Amino acid sequence: MAIDLAAHQTRLIQLFEPAPIRSTYGMVLSYEGERAVFDLPYNPGFDHAAGAIHGGVFATLLDNAGWFAAAQRYEEWIVTVEFTTRLLEAAVEEDLRAEGWIVRAGRRVAVAGMEVRAAGGRLVATGSGTFVTTGKPLAAKG
Fold first, then answer.
1. CB 28, CB 67: distance < 8 Å
2. Partners of 98 in the beta sheet?
3. Among positive and negative, which fits the CA dihedral 119, 19, 3, 102?
4. How many Å apart are CA 59 and CA 63, to the nearest integer?
5. What is the average pLDDT across 66-84?
6. Residue 1 above 70 pLDDT?
7. Tell me, which fold does domain 5-137 have in CATH?
8. pTM for this predicted structure
């Protein structure tokens, strides 16, 4: 059965809205075509001791962007089985935007590419990830 992409993307956004990580980080999820997009306003609470945004924030954005890109192909839960993070440059007091896209999706496994850019469009991190289906229905916790 083919997935209604726009309806499924809306469902995924609704699934993300009550997630504690969304409110903790202040991330906003949207889709641009088949790309999952996360916008993260600058928060000084994410800075490390040298004053730049901590690399773990980049990793979180990359994982989320990859997961939500891959999730649009499946009607069941998927899990991250591995992902890489390449930190290219520091971001200091800047909003961030992460995008994820599908490189390849099979019946059970998807591979995604991801990137993070600073507000001015400068590429600050890249990544890739592998995601696998679980067989469990995609439903909100509750």
1. no
2. 38, 116
3. positive
4. 6
5. 97
6. no
7. Thiol Ester Dehydrase; Chain A (3.10.129)
8. 0.94
